[in-house]
Amino acid sequence: MKAYSNEVEPEIFRVLTPDGEIIETIDGKIDKSLMLKMYEGMLLLRTFDRKSINLQRQGRIGTYAPFEGQEASQVGSALALSAGDWMFPTYRDHGAAIIHGQELYRVFLYWMAHFDGSICPEGKRILPPSVPIATQMVHAVGTAWASKIRGEKNVSIAYFGDGATSEGDFHEALNFAGVYKTPTIFFCQNNGYAISVPFEKQSASKTISQRAAAYDIHGVRVDGNDIFAVWLTVKQAVERALKGEGPTLIEAITFRYGAHTTADNPNIYRDQDEVSTFWRENRDPITRLRKYLIKEGHWNEEQEELALKQFNELIDAHLQKAEGYPKSDPLEMFNHVYAEESWHLKEQKQELNQILRKGGKK
Amino acid sequence: MGKNLTMLQAITEAMDQMLGHDDRVMIMGEDIGVNGGVFRSTEGLYEKYGKDRVVDTPLAESGIIGSAIGLALNGMLPIVEIQFLAFIYPGFEQLVSHAARMRYRTRGQFGVPLLIRTPYGAGIRGPELHSESVETFFAHTPGLKVVAPSNPYDAKGLLISALEDPDPVIFLEPTKLYRAFKEEVPDEMYRIPIGQAKVVQEGSDLTIYAWGAMLREALNAAKKIEAEKGWKCEVVDLRTLYPLDRDTIVQSIKKTGRALIVHEAHKTAGLGAEIISIINDEALIYLKAPIKRVTGFDVPVPPFTIEDHYLPTVDRVKQGIVETLSF
Q1: Which GO molecular function annotations are given, in alphabetical order (chain B) (predicted)?
Q2: Model confidence, pTM
Q3: pLDDT beyond 60 at A5
Q4: A330 touches chain B (CB under 8 A)
Q5: How far is CA A38 from the centre of its chain?
Q6: Are B98 and A135 in contact (CB under 8 A)?
Q7: φ and ψ at B12, to 5 degrees?
Q8: What are the pLDDT digits (tens) for B91-113?
């Protein structure tokens, strides 16, 4: 059970200990306002995540992929980006997407299986969550490559889990990014399991970050529950990328407390209570930052209560907006297959339209 | 003004002109740079436009197609060359799960104007997996367009249209026809619309539907049968395989009442079945005989020592015509 040992693994970059102590200098890099942004971001996401699980249980959204426990990785990485940077999330990274500018009600719409749930705000470059594993990593190489060709100061970040590192596209993406020195950030949240398969069965390499060496790109292993370390690491990767120094592979060691999705029962493949209790009690990303902030006098109980109240209201407002959002018209399934609708789609659309009219509906 | 060009030269010219015309265009693939492509379709372009626009990529089809999706998302117009159609399989997921669906998933917010060129088909005495004709895989995928030219003139005009198309296009180049013949190809950048078939020979007794390399077999068979029996076959070159040009398909069958479909792809679930369905839906009462298919067999394309027996031949096509007309 090495992965859950209390010892700090030597090769991991860590700034904020689980006790809320700073062990690396962050002077001038992370100021109070950024710290509060980080904390509030994590608090918002945890509230959102828990709410979403409840909504799934109530049948108000469909199958949902929770990320509780991984907030530092998602918030820290997303806050290190600029507004115009390209983001390629997976189905577990809507937290990062929200921090990067995706609207909460759209995320609800996505999990409600509404067509409009994958649209991002105008001017943002947040792609729909990738459902196949690792495939989006090569897209992030492509968008970054195009940014480089045109001399645009943007990076592309691809999110993925430890299971994705077994896929061919992981290797093809790293290889292409290395060859073309694209401003791509590969951000792995290693939460120890690809659904039920633990990392030891996933790979013989001890770490994911070490694989960067094979492609001669920069690799970093970071405590994924330490938001300061995550932010600093991604920030550095952005700077490297924009200086033309190429891609970075970041392995953020973290853990999701809950199931793979709401359709999954993790008790079958891991000792749920023991493992998640260990992480929750010893390494929780929110608790450790709270400890630090309270110690520094930047945060207190009243602020916490007020923030939670505000976040709950905000989330409820977005939920209301999502639930009140016009339902997908069945005919919408024919839209946007191509830029221009061809004859067969026009006719099939008409066919469905006639069926719907006969049914007394639209 | 024009020049006599092979299909290969017409394709190179189209790419050359597109590269010169639009900075966003880039070509990428294995061996397409210094080497000019295994069939020389990109010959001279590397020297003319440089390594950043004619890019020799690592040998990785998913990486090539996947990164091209990203390039297309971010404003470039990538032309991807996949060395042979059957080598596309490692990149198949990128095509069907991402390229084809990006516009749909983002409700039109992000499109993938990606062009994938690949030699396909048998008859070049290639090693195994160099001769496949699996257009059905792509024609079964909403969001993709599939084009297959049969001559130099169409190849140039269709290629330019395919590159300018806002959606991903799979451009199937019949390897056997690359250098098979020359024809006059205009110098200017002309376009042939995607989605339009062409009646290449008028006739009244039977329609042959074909595309790619099989078009020549169809035309040769039609010529012979006319000489031998006096029957006049109409020959339709589909040119775009998805979406199909239903109107041209149907107009012709209404005129002739009999049809033969010739394709080198396997018979089962080949596009011939789709064409028969279209005719059933639209023109059943015009039919004077069952529609026949002359196709590749439902076996893996065999070694080249016997591949001629796999491919539809002029004799098989002729036999098909005779059976249909004497029904």
Answers
A1: oxidoreductase activity
A2: 0.95
A3: no
A4: no
A5: 14
A6: yes
A7: -60, -45
A8: 999 999 999 999 999 999 999 99
